[in-house]
Specification:
Mean pLDDT: 82
Shape: globular
Structural class: alpha+beta
Low-confidence stretches: 1-22, 44-57, 61-86
Radius of gyration: 34 Å
Helix content: 10-25%
Number of strands: 19
Number of helices: 6
Oligomer: single chain
Number of domains: 3
Order of helices and strands: HHHEEEHEEEEEEEEEEEEHEEEEH
Largest sheet: 5 strands, antiparallel
Strand content: 35-45%
Strand order of the largest sheet: 1-19-18-17-16
Length: 330
């Protein structure tokens, strides 16, 4: 029996994956062990049936022992196809934003050359007394709207919050910082979504203003978690870019990120020698960030402070499409 060749023996010289060839020595060891198992199986049908799982297990152990190094190599070095489809991600780089402390003015000074258009009662969590937000139009340019926070007999100037009339200015309460703010949103130079936030600092006993450098800032739920982010999609900038703002509670200010900076790290682009651009758009209910540098075009999503590479069916530039539409309109 030991000299007989089992019908499946020739196939042992090459493993089923056709990737690894066994040496003659190892193949002979397997053949001798298999022959011994065959002898044991001849002792009886019932014992054969009982031992067949043992035979299968033994063969499996032997094959895995021989193929093990190949399997480990495959795990350590995945195929190029897997590498090309693997998602990449990078932490977004944030920088300290600007804030200003408001200085009180007497009403007579603040109201010079202006006319009061609207008074809106407002509340701040840390301030127990009544507050108002007063909106004034310039006498010579009635579409230009100035905002002041009124605390008692004093007015705190917020600045120009609109240039398209009082109807394009919205006043509401918000809670981006956890302490509550007065939020004024208006249109400036035909651009909507210019936000001014006023909060009270209970440590310094001062009112603070955050105007995001007068950039457009929209409230968008980028990652679909039910919480909105403050996002600037600055399409008309040269070059266009996407800006993200978030509150840093430990340092008590808004910090900002130009997403080009982090995207360049993700895709290995040197911003010292390349002009980068970015654009935010929505497709299929998902917010997507387009990043480009020269002919390079890539797409990303944002979630929990990270940019993640994503694949789209096409590589066309949505930014170029929107810019072309604007040119045709003019």
């Amino acid at each position: 029996m030991a000299n007989e060749r089992a019908p499946w023996e020739p196939s042992l010289r090459t493993d089923p994956l056709k990737q690894r060839h066994f040496s003659d020595r190892l193949a002979d060891q397997i053949r001798r062990r298999a022959a011994q198992l065959d002898q044991e199986l001849q002792l009886g049908r019932h014992r054969r049936m009982r031992r067949w799982p043992l035979v299968a297990a033994s063969l499996t152990v032997l094959i895995l022992a021989l193929a093990g190094p190949w399997l480990i190599s495959e795990l350590d070095h995945p195929s190029s196809q897997e590498d090309s489809s693997a998602r990449q991600a990078v932490e977004v780089v944030f920088h300290p934003g600007l804030k200003a402390e408001l200085t009180a003015m007497k009403p007579a000074v603040a109201e010079a050359a202006k006319i009061l258009e609207k008074t809106v009662p407002v509340k701040l969590t840390a301030v127990q007394r009544p507050l108002n937000l007063r909106l004034y139009a310039e006498l010579e340019k009635k579409n230009v709207i100035h905002a002041y926070l009124q605390d008692g007999k004093l007015l705190y100037p917020i600045g120009v919050v609109g240039s398209e009339g009082i109807d394009k200015v919205d006043v509401q309460s918000s809670d981006w910082t956890g302490d509550g703010e007065v939020q004024v949103t208006g249109s400036l130079a035909s651009e909507p979504n210019h936000i001014h936030l006023v909060k009270y600092n209970a440590q310094t006993y001062r009112y603070e203003l955050f105007d995001f450098q007068d950039h457009q800032v929209a409230q968008i739920d980028l990652d679909g978690d039910g919480r909105e982010e403050l996002v600037g999609n600055l399409v008309d900038s040269v070059p266009p870019y996407v800006e993200l703002h978030r509150w840093n509670a430990e340092r008590d200010y808004f910090e900002y990120a130009v997403l080009d900076e982090s995207a360049a790290l993700l895709y290995g682009v040197d911003r010292e020698t390349s002009v980068t651009r970015s654009y935010l758009f929505q497709e299929g209910g998902q917010w997507i960030i387009e990043f480009g540098a020269g002919e390079l075009i890539r797409y990303m999503t944002y979630k929990e402070g990270r940019l993640t590479d994503m694949k789209l069916k096409d590589q066309k530039s949505r930014l170029l499409e929107i810019q072309s539409k604007k040119q045709h309109m003019h």
